[in-house]
Design a protein that fits this description.
Largest sheet: none
Oligomer: single chain
Distance between the termini: 52 Å
Length: 137
């Protein structure tokens, strides 16, 4: 094999500290956000909807930030962080706040959020890169 194969493999190195930190930060932001929203609006039907929508937004924003911070290895990092967030969300099942079947099905939501976040981060980095060459008026 040529040395190019080794170089391609080195480009795909994963910074596991970054991945774990991103998973923890998204989890904590989701937890704190859910607690704050629940404290403000209560655990009514509308309050639970607000917590779920807010949690979705936190995950999408977190994964988008991951994609923007790792443009050369964007999709690998987004997929790993999304999978890690999905695994960490098993805590809800263990605390009996969600069923195991809902947790299993939620992998599709995390996959959707990863895809949306990847596209958003691609657009953001393309916009930033396109304005770098322009001079300020």
């Amino acid at each position: 094999m040529s040395s190019n194969a080794g170089q391609a493999g080195s480009k795909q190195r994963v910074n596991w500290k970054f991945v774990i930190l991103a998973i923890v930060l998204i989890f904590v932001a989701n937890l704190v956000g859910g607690f704050l929203v629940g404290s403000i609006v209560g655990l009514t039907s509308g309050g639970l909807t607000a917590i779920l929508v807010g949690g979705n937004i936190v995950v999408i924003v977190g994964l988008t930030i991951v994609g923007c911070m790792t443009p050369t290895n964007r999709w690998t990092n987004i997929i790993l962080v999304a999978a890690g967030c999905w695994l960490v969300s098993l805590i809800d099942t263990l605390l009996a706040t969600s069923s195991f079947s809902r947790w299993v099905v939620s992998i599709f939501w995390y996959a959707l959020w990863a895809g949306v976040s990847g596209v958003i981060s691609l657009l953001i980095t393309a916009l930033i890169n396109s304005t770098k060459g322009r001079e300020a008026p």
